[in-house]
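thought: user wants a sequence for this fold. calling inverse folding tool.
action: design(structure=
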């Protein structure tokens, strides 16, 4: 029941936000039931219950054998000449929060789009271009057309995170508002968005990675500056509107996948990793774990079942659950399970994202890391089971000045917990030693104030883990892992 409620709430809130903010405007169609299940990783029943609720509340209209239509917003559309103050109030009261989203997009999206175009392959690119052509024929708003196209590019990369992240940023960027008032944003001569767009010039090809990166960087920087100038001009017209300190951005990287029992599973794995629960020791009782995590006994049992299947534990009648490491057969069997396939592919996608995101994260935080921070890191490196790469990224995340970027790093880190169990096996233990040495080398670059080498070494760490674990998973019977491409360091060096 806990799992069902989480999935329902996640899908309901996501669709409702998109409708209310205008990302899904009045008259637009929702994805089909099967598409919603695929996009949001929910079952057919959950999707059906969410649509029934949204229809009952007046947000959408459903009809048998017909697309689901958004009906919210018709009454909110002002007549010609009517005041725009309500929507402007929303924008100006959250000005800083919105600008931080655009700043985050300017840093993250150029490498993600460029990399996706490079690795998706010619066939997938042609399919994306076909979808773009169909969107244009449907006479949708240009921003919606281009947004759909970009979603397809990110999906074609094979990543389970890129598109979901972009959707979340779009949602909080208030794009419908700024698109509606685009003529007020810039001087006609400055509006490069109307000129030389990549879908006309054919930039998005594997051989044009550097050119595409340059375009997207310029495009997003221009957009950010344009939005900021517009808000600077708009604010004096409405001096009565007070700016809120609230940060609006949020993102659930799990997309409802991180159920309660999975959170417990990961936490126990962490505790095994740092030695709180040692090999051959028994875990606390089901009742004790239920009280500790504030969940039902059924949820605890599901978590323990996961630990059994992964090879971390073995549950005995009466005795309880014992930590039992180094069971290779469990790893091979779980790789063949659909649930674990998705989890492991999500883990690979997280490594891929961190390899691409580390350089822009360093760009923002490098000068904010103090001598005291460095001494603290050195002390923590000496702790048992310390992972230098994790500790360094925690330091970067804590000093990240952009709130959306910080949230994104925290969410992706949750996904990286899933891969910790690989280090418990002989091959993984050897890889962990290499990664720890690479992490310590990154710290030396940080200590020497070599920003470029530091950023490159962090990316190299995540690339190394990605290649190792991906090959390991393929050997365990998960050929789908090969779809998660490791970024080439020559590409990453372009924007360090």
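)
observation: tool returned 496 residues.
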């Amino acid at each position: 029941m806990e799992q069902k409620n989480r999935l329902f709430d996640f899908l309901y809130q996501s669709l409702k936000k998109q409708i209310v903010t205008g990302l899904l405007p009045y008259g637009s169609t929702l994805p089909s039931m099967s598409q919603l299940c695929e996009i949001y990783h929910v079952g057919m029943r959950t999707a059906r219950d969410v649509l029934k609720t949204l229809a009952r509340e007046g947000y959408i209209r459903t009809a048998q054998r017909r697309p689901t239509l958004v009906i919210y917003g018709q009454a909110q559309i002002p007549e010609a000449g009517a005041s725009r103050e309500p929507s402007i109030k929303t924008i100006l009261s959250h000005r800083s929060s919105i600008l931080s989203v655009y700043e985050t997009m300017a840093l993250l999206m150029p490498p993600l789009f460029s990399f996706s175009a490079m690795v998706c392959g010619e066939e997938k690119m042609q399919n994306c271009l076909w979808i773009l052509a169909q969107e244009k024929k449907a006479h949708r708003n240009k921003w919606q057309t281009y947004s759909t196209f970009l979603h397809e590019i990110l999906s074609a990369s094979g990543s389970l995170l890129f598109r979901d992240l972009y959707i979340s940023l779009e949602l909080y960027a208030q794009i419908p508002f700024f698109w509606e008032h685009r003529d007020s944003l810039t001087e006609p001569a400055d509006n490069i968005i109307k000129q030389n767009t990549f879908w006309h010039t054919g930039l998005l090809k594997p051989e044009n990675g550097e050119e595409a990166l340059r375009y997207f960087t310029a495009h997003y920087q221009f957009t950010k500056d344009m939005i900021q100038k517009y808000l600077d001009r708009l604010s004096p017209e409405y001096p009565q509107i007070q700016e809120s300190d609230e940060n609006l951005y949020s993102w659930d990287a799990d997309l409802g996948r991180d159920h309660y029992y999975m959170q417990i599973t990961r936490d126990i794995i962490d505790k095994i990793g740092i030695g709180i629960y040692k090999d051959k020791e028994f875990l606390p009782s089901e009742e004790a774990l239920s009280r500790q995590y504030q969940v039902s006994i059924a949820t605890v049992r599901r978590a323990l079942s996961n630990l059994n299947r992964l090879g971390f534990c073995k549950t005995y009648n009466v005795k309880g659950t014992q930590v039992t490491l180094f069971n290779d057969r469990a790893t091979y069997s779980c790789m063949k399970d659909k649930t674990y396939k998705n989890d492991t592919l999500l883990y690979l996608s997280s490594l891929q994202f961190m390899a691409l995101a580390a350089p822009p994260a360093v760009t923002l935080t490098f000068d904010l890391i103090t001598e005291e921070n460095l001494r603290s890191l050195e002390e923590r490196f000496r702790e048992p089971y310390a992972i230098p790469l994790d500790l360094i990224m925690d330091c970067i995340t804590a000093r990240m000045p952009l709130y959306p970027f910080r949230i994104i790093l925290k969410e992706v880190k949750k996904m990286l917990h899933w891969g910790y169990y690989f280090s418990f096996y002989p091959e993984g233990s050897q890889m962990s030693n290499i990664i720890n040495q690479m992490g310590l080398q990154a710290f030396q670059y940080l200590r020497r104030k070599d920003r470029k080498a530091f950023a490159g070494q962090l990316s190299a760490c995540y690339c190394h883990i990605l290649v190792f674990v991906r090959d390991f998973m393929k050997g365990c019977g998960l050929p789908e892992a090969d779809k998660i491409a490791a970024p080439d360091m020559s590409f990453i060096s372009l924007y360090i």
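thought: summarizing for user.
answer: Here is the designed sequence. The beta strands are 60-63, 66-70, 313-316, 320-323.
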